Amino acid sequence: MALESNERPNRPIAKFESMLKTDDVYFFDSEDFEDIIHHYLNNGKIALAKKAIKIGLQQHPDAIELKLLNIEVLVFENQLDIAEQYLDELQILDPTNEEIFIQRANIYSKKDNHEAAVALLNKALDLAENSFDIHSLLGMEYLFMDDFKSAKESFMRCVSFDEQDYSSLYNVIYCFEFLEDHDGAIVYLNDYLERNPYCEVAWHQLGKQYTYKKMHTEALAAFDFAIISDDTFIGAYFEKGKVLEKLGKYNEAIENYETTIKMEDPTSHAYLRIGKCHEQLQNDDMAKYYYYHTVHEDPLLDKGWLAITDFYFRRKNYDKALHYVNKALNIDGENPSYWKKCAYINAALKKYDQADFAFKQAVDLGNYELKTWLNWADVLLSNEDTASALQILAQGQQFYPESAELKYKTAGFHLANRDMINGRISFMDALKLDLQKLSLFFEEFPQYTKSDWVLEAVEKAEKASK
């Protein structure tokens, strides 16, 4: 039994879902089908969208917009060859339809051919009356290409079309940040705020830009304006707290973090920041209380476990520090920060074999910091394994070939190993790299401060530097 859609007063979506539950068939305008399909696509209900497309094309086999929606679903499901075939057919029927070029661009984007996608989107721009969505798509393609300048310009056009398009506004600022143009971002946001003085999002982003520039007074003012614009804007309170921390105003910072907890479910990041503020205020019991709350709220937050570990490490309670860093490693044994901290703790406990193993794990997992190589070498020397210590220093020099610290330490280790030739060569190399860091060598190897050949080499280096 077929019924006209206007025989039932329900909205098209409710009417369509009612039809699916019965044997009745209702007729809809093609525009109604478009609304139904868009509703399902926007809500991620792909199966229902496909049903609506199928029925819609049965009722309106020549509707180009429905065919384009069918192609959009095919592209989403990576059925790219079929989608291209349908596009070829559609282009013959309607060669000036910008949506055809947009869907072709989506296909090229899926194939990682972003240059071709950009070219097609620019063709679509020439044909389109409303180019807002196309500029947004262009911006994303430029981001894929790491062309942040062009991406920024595309997203700026989106914001100029709709100043409430906060997604594009965020993308504009993201591009400024990636280009490290914080001054440009500040000018852009101030200009935007001239037109939208009560936009909490823009004030929040402006505050973050001032924070990057270490303009803390201006940052606090921006965050205050964000809060005035929307006193429930949690992000503004949190960022304001971070700035107050940097200014040493820990009690005020705590108040702002506590505000975020009162407004919404507590977050591990808020607990962590409150804990750090209490530690700065030497409220040790309160600091521990909030650190433990941090890891209880989010056991996978590495900064939480490291905060507890560092708390005990700074107080030289190395056994407890080791206990907590091991708990962290049991949760995430692939975290190089955990292993590095584990190495330092074991070294403090004079467990040099364990420290050696921990440093190796940290490096294997991608921690190549200069201090890691230097401290690992010290551990091996303490374990009376000078040969391995020199090998580690040599590996470190592959990452930091201009590091005088590594060279001075290498010289000292060779000398400690009674290898005078390599010791002198390394020492001379270190002097050439940085004469000013000679004091590091004398601090670590004071036995050579009055050595004739050392003094002679230093004298020659000083003359050469003048």
Structure characterization notes:
This protein has 466 residues and is mainly alpha-helical. The protein has a domain at 368-466: Serine Threonine Protein Phosphatase 5, Tetratricopeptide repeat (Alpha Horseshoe), CATH 1.25.40. 76% of the residues lie in helices and 1% in strands. The protein contains 27 helices and two strands. The chain has a two-stranded parallel ribbon with strand order 1-2. Helix 1 links the parallel strand 1 and strand 2. Helix 20 runs parallel beside helix 22. The longest helix has 14 residues, at 46-59. The protein starts with a strand and ends with a helix. The model is unreliable at 1-10 (pLDDT under 50).
Strand order of the largest sheet: 1-2
Mean pLDDT: 90
**Overall body shape:** elongated
- Reading the helices and strands in chain order gives EHEHHHHHHHHHHHHHHHHHHHHHHHHHH
Tally of separate helices: 27
CATH superfamily of the domain at 368-466: Tetratricopeptide repeat domain
Q: Would you identify the regions where 5 or more consecutive residues have pLDDT less than 50?
A: 1-10
Beta-sheet strand percentage? Answer: under 5%
User: Mind describing the biggest β-sheet?
Assistant: 2 strands, parallel
In the CATH hierarchy, what is the class of the domain at 368-466?
Mainly Alpha
Q: What level of helicity do the residues show?
A: over 70%
CATH architecture of the domain at 368-466: Alpha Horseshoe
